[in-house]
Model the fold of this input.
Amino acid sequence: MFQNLNKNKEKNDKNLKMMGMSAIVLVVLFVYVLIKSDNAMQSGSYYIGVIFLFILMGLAFALQKYKTKIQAVIPKNKFQEELEKSEVRQEEVPTVNNSTIQAVTSNITFKDVAGISQIKEELEEVVDFLNNPKKYKKYDVSLPKGVLLVGPPGVGKTLIARAVAGETNVPFFYQSGASFVHIYVGMGAKRVKELFNEAKAKAPSIIFIDEIDAVGKARGIGSNDEREATLNELLTQMDGFDGNSGVMVIAATNKIEVLDEALLRAGRFDRRVFLTLPSRNDREEILKLYLKGKKIAFELEKLANDTSGFSSAALATLVNEALLNMIKRDGTTIVDEDIDTAKRKIQFGKKEHYFLSEEEKNILATYQAAKAYISKSKVELFDEGISSKDLIYPSKTQLENQITNNLAGSIGVEVLLNEPYAVFESEIKEAKMKAAAMVEKYDMATSSQNLLQNIKSKLQEKISTNKDEILKLKATLLKDEVVVF
Ligand code: ADP
Done:
C-alpha cells in the first residue's frame, strides 16, 4: 500500500518537472523572437502573447494542484477504469516468494458427492496415483497430466475436483479462466507461470482451472494477442513438467467445441470426463444427501421424478429453500407445501424443459430414443447435446454415419409420430454442413441434397422396421431419463 502511494507521488513529481521545463523553453523561445523582431514595440500583440502564456502556466499549475478534486467531479470513462484495474492487477502479480496465488486444502471428499458414481470411478485412478505415486513409478507409468471435466453449469465439476483434492489431501490451486484475462499482453501469461511454479513447488498438488474456455478458446476466434499469449504459456507449462511430477491439472468447461485443438492433444488434457444433468437416480441420491438428518413428510421418490431437468446445484438450492420455508412457518418437518413453495421460487428463470408438458416430453423422448437406437450410444432425455470434437481425418463412411446420427432423432419423430416436429435445429444444421463439406471440400459426393435424401430414406426404413425396439427405449427414457448401450 505504501509502495503504491510512493509510486503515485513519484509520477506526480515527474509531471510537474516536465511542465516546468516546457514553460521555461516557451519563455526562452518567446524572448528570443522578441529580441530578433524589428517592429516588436509597434503592436501590442507580443504583450498579449506574454500575458496569455502566463495565464496558460497558471492554469496548468492550478490543474495540477486540484487534480484529485477535479477527477472526482468528472466521471471516469471505460478505458480509464480498465487501466486502473489492470494497474491494480499488475501490482497484485505475485513474485514466486510473495505469491497472490494461494493453495487451499479441501475438506470435501467423494462422500460429499452424491450420485454420478461412474464419474467418481473414473477419477479414483487419479486419486490413487496422487496417493501412491511409487506404485506407478515402479512401472514407469505416468498418468494424464490434464483431466478436462465437460458439462453444463451446476452439475458438480468444481465439487468433484475439490473432492479429488480432499481425497488426496494435496494442496488445491483454484483459478478461474477469467482471472487470466488481462488487457496488457503478457500479464495473463505471467499469472499462468506463477500458478504452475507454485503448484510445482508444493507438489503433489492439483491445479483446477474453472471455465478454461475463457482462456483456451481456439486461436484465431476473435483474435486477441493477450489471450493467445496466455494460452501459449498454458500449453508451454503443460509440456514443461513430466507426468510424474505430481502436479495434476483439472480444468472445467461447458464448451469443449470452442477449445483450441492444441489443448486436447496428447500430453495435455487428454483425459476427458463428461458430466450431464443428473439422471432420476442421481437426483434421488443428491436429494437424500441434502436431506440427511432432516425430518420429512413428503415422498422423496416422487420429488426425484418431478425434478427432471434440474441440475445438482438446483437440487441443493431446492432443499435449502424448503428448509427456509419450514423455519419460516415454525415447523420441524419438511412437508409438501415447503417443497412446492421452494420449487416455485427456483423455477423462475430456469430453462424451458423444467416445464415440458407430457406431450412435449413424448416428442423429446421419441427423438432421443430414435437417436439412441441408431447411434447405439448413451442418450439422455435432456441431453444438452455437448458436441464432441470431430475426427481429424474422417472417412466417407464415418462422415455419412455422423450425418445419420444427426438426423436419426428428427426422422424418428417423423416416422413414429406421423409428422415432422421442430426439435433441435442444431442437429439438422450440422448434418447439412457436413453434407455440404463432403460435396464442396472433399469431392466425396456430387449433390448434398441427394446425399441427405439417401440417408433420410435409409433411416425411415430402419426406424419403421425397428419401431418396437425404439418404443421400448422411449419408455425407458421416460422412466429413467437415460439409456445406456
Ligand atoms: P459446476 O462446477 O459444474 O458449475 P459446482 O461443482 O460448482 O458445479 O456445483 C454447485 C453446487 O451444486 C455444489 O457446491 C454442490 O452444493 C452442488 N452439487 C453439484 N453436484 C453435486 C453432487 N453430485 N452431489 C452433491 N452436491 C452437488
Notes: The beta strands are 146-150, 172-176, 205-210, 247-253, 271-274, 295-297, 333-335, 379-380, 482-483. The pocket of adenosine-5'-diphosphate is lined by residues 113-116, 151, 153-159, 252, 286, 289, 312-313, 316 (CB under 6 Å). The domain at 104-274 is CATH 3.40.50.300 (Rossmann fold). DSSP finds 19 helices and nine strands in the chain.
